[in-house]
Amino acid sequence: MMMNGRNADADTMAPVGSHGRQAGFLSRRSFLVGTGAGLGALALAGCTTGGMSLAEAKKVYGPVPDEKFPIPAVNISKVDPKYYRRTVRYETKEATGTIIIDPKKYYVYRIEGDGLATRYGANVGRDGFRWNGDVVVGRKGEWATWTPPKEMIARQPEAAKYAAGMPGGLDNPLGARTLYLYQDGVYTLYTIYASIHPESIGKGVTSGCTGLLSQDMIDLYNHTEVGTKVVMLPS
């Protein structure tokens, strides 16, 4: 295994995929820490934020009503504008389509070629749960089922009601879209997932997974094929 760092916490909740295998892990109640600082000063009309105006951000991160479970608009006052989606210069030898995660800067890049990348703000693993290495997208899921492992049910009995699986939905920890990360044909327990918690972006809050705002995750998901290389940079 090329991956380095601590693996998934056995006491975190994990979803189950169509074949009954563990497929990611995060609890909405346990993986978030702290709250985002207010950015009220940026609400001034005409203010630009790293290449995207507030008006544009409200549109990009607006509601997504046509989803199976309609996604609400992001409260962008809880997101540092530097984490808004944008196209940036990014020189790399990786092929077009490759996903690069930079946990130090809380960014996810999708390589577009010609020295450009689409950059998304992200949350990443908290201290003690960060890792690095090359993996691939082994499978994809929309509104995936999530199931707590028995270890967590033993410690948090209230999770027992999801022992048979928590159906997809806004309250489901995996959110609207999930990319499951594999290495050497084995599921790593790590995912890139959709978050409805804007205050988590730019923070280390998970047990090793990487979260994007739902609107960003849908964009990344739609441009990512199974087999895509994912590079987790050292933290």
Would you give an account of this structure?
It is a single chain. With 235 residues, the chain is mainly beta. The chain has one domain: L,D-transpeptidase catalytic domain-like (Beta Barrel), CATH 2.40.440. 9% of the residues lie in helices and 29% in strands. Strands 1, 4, 5, 6, 7, 9, 10, 11, 13 and 14 form a 10-stranded mixed sheet that branches. It has a two-stranded antiparallel ribbon with strand order 2-3. The chain has a two-stranded parallel sheet with strand order 8-12. The protein is globular. The two termini are 18 Å apart.
Form type? globular
Instruction: Quote the CATH topology.
Output: L,D-transpeptidase catalytic domain-like
Number of domains: 1
- Strand content is 25-35%
Distance between the termini: 18 Å
Q: Radius of gyration over alpha carbons?
A: 17 Å
Q: List how many beta strands DSSP finds.
A: 14
The number of distinct helices, counting runs of at least 4 residues, comes to: 3
- The CATH superfamily is identified as L,D-transpeptidase catalytic domain-like
Low-confidence segments, ≥5 residues, pLDDT <50? 6-50
The computed structural class is: mainly beta
Topology, element by element:
Blueprint: E1 4-5, E2 48-49, E3 52-53, H1 54-60, E4 86-89, E5 99-102, E6 107-113, E7 116-121, E8 124-125, E9 131-142, H2 150-155, E10 177-183, E11 186-195, E12 204-206, E13 210-213, H3 214-222, E14 229-232
Parallel strand pairs: 5-14, 8-12, 11-13
Antiparallel strand pairs: 1-9, 2-3, 4-7, 5-6, 6-7, 9-10, 9-14, 10-11
